[in-house]
Amino acid sequence: MTYETILVEQRDAVTLITLNRPQALNALNSQVLVELSAAFAAFDADPSRHCAVVTGSEKAFAAGADIKEMADKPASDFFLEDFFSGWQSKVVATRKPWIAAVAGFALGGGCELAMMADFIIAADTAKFGQPEIKLGVAPGMGGSQRLTRAVGKAKAMEMCLTGRMMDAQEAERAGLVARIVPAADLIDDALKTAATIASMPPMAAMVNKEMVNIAFETGLAQGLLTERRLFQILTATEDKKEGMAAFVEKRPGVWKGR
Ligand code: HXC
């Protein structure tokens, strides 16, 4: 597929996806969403890629869903299309790990996209917010749910009700982002982190991702049981044999991905 609103580059085992609608601060219109879905599906299906980074520009990761596209759309269309449902479930279905590298504005749908990532690395310029209330609406692809799980009720409620932005420092203190780095180092840092993940045994990386995500979907007893079963399944892999042999023999492991 040829992309017009995103750039997709392969850096060894890492796929770098850059949102590229600078004239609209990377607002997520339907074309961006179709292209992003295709890029995620291609990444997940490509056996030579093991981690992805999604980023925007220095000024904006993404300033939200495209307000101009939504402005005249009738409510029946939002309902009948189940607006953003199909796209969101495709992104969340990505089985390989991916990182959101956020500089500048991550607002509305932009913040929601970042929160779909396995984790966020923020530039010191990052600003997160759910300002939908100012448009007479509310978050529609996870903002009220994922933000609340990430930062707790008090901050999530305040942000949704006032539309105020959280800067990178506050986002790190609140647990929304894994780390802050200087803006100039953001892409290098995210690519290095992704390369580290991509160098791990691939099935183990996918299972670790799945395990942590299960913590948000289920109760503790079921989560612990699922964790044990997934752990036990991983012990049957060739990469488990190799990883433990490599440790004992004091050499780096060479992964088969099975
Ligand atoms: C469409 C957008 C846009 C958006 C910015 N632009 N955000 N276009 N949708 N979400 C466009 C502007 O119209 C403008 O185009 C250009 O990008 C530059 O933006 P400016 O506003 O001139 O930049 P600046 O003054 O620096 O302000 C930056 C900003 C502001 C604070 C980020 O752009 C802003 O408040 N944007 C909207 C943020 C927002 O409300 N997001 C939530 C959207 S709703 P022109 O052509 O005028 O130069 C949402 C719902 C998700 O996400 C759930 C749905 C299911």
From TrEMBL:
It is an enzyme of class 4 (lyase). Could possibly oxidize fatty acids using specific components. One of its GO terms (molecular function) is enoyl-CoA hydratase activity. The keyword Transferase does not apply. Belongs to the enoyl-CoA hydratase/isomerase family. Pfam families: ECH_1 (PF00378). It catalyses: a (3S)-3-hydroxyacyl-CoA = a (2E)-enoyl-CoA + H2O; a 4-saturated-(3S)-3-hydroxyacyl-CoA = a (3E)-enoyl-CoA + H2O. Keywords: Fatty acid metabolism, Lipid metabolism, Lyase. It comes from Sphingobium wenxiniae (strain DSM 21828 / CGMCC 1.7748 / JZ-1). It comes from the Bacteria. This is enoyl-CoA hydratase. Its EC number is 4.2.1.17.
